[in-house]
Design goal:
Elements lengths: L10 H11 L3 E2 H10 L10 H14 L3 E7 L7 E6 L1 H16 L7 H6 L7 H28 L9 H25 L7 H11 L10
Antiparallel strand pairs: 1-3, 2-3
Length: 210
């Protein structure tokens, strides 16, 4: 007998489910909590539209349901959503998977690094220098948050600790590549790239001509 596939996990969906696990809420309240708790720093929330799309998907999956519609004179109706028993189970399963799984994400930066040779070395270095400046600003921001909320229990600051650690590591790596480019330890040219391509892709005599 065929079994149904588990719902595809979603970072924003997970946060919405855990907020609804605390109690039913309307979308505006969820958005405000995301901002107040700093979760907009760890998930991509571009306006309330993305929240509506996520909640609609969770409703279709049976993980969230409409609890009631609040009508207030002079204001648009507000739909209050609640989590289902299935939603609680899926939220825990998503959390387990997200904590233990690696290699499932494909950031744009890694793809760009794999094609760094697509730009002349000086231009590649210039773009990485811009990235390093932005990373330094992000690192300063993360350190500022950790200082400002030093009295908050560490459990609620782990995402900022992780953000700081990852940003520190990436910044150090980017600065290292920039320095190697600046000093000529990492260099390439179109001619050299063609030679490498030929060396890595020798002609195959067994290939049929077109």
């Amino acid at each position: 007998m065929a079994t149904s596939r588990p719902p595809q996990r979603s970072s924003l969906g997970l946060i919405v489910l855990y907020m609804l696990a605390e109690g039913p809420k309307h979308v505006y309240r969820i958005q405000k909590l995301i901002e107040q708790q700093g979760k907009d720093r760890v998930v991509n929330v571009r306006g309330r539209g993305s929240l509506y799309q996520t909640i609609d998907r969770l409703v279709r999956l049976g993980l969230v349901e409409v609890q009631e519609t609040v009508r207030t004179e002079g204001r648009p109706d507000r739909i209050v959503y609640g989590i289902t028993d299935s939603g609680r189970e899926v939220a825990r399963e998503w959390l387990r998977e997200m904590l233990s799984t690696t290699g499932g994400e494909f950031p744009e930066f890694i793809a760009a690094v794999s094609l760094l040779f697509g730009l002349p070395p000086d231009e590649a270095r210039a773009q990485l220098e811009v990235r390093a400046e932005k990373l330094a600003a992000e690192l300063a921001d993360a350190e500022s948050v950790l200082r400002d909320y030093s009295q908050v229990p560490r459990l609620f600051l782990l995402e900022e600790e992780y953000r700081r650690a990852v940003t520190q590591a990436e910044l150090a790596w980017v600065r290292g590549v920039v320095e190697d480019l600046r000093e000529g330890r990492l260099i390439w040219s179109e001619e050299w790239l063609r030679e490498v391509f030929v060396a890595l892709h020798p002609p195959n005599d067994n290939e049929e001509g077109s």
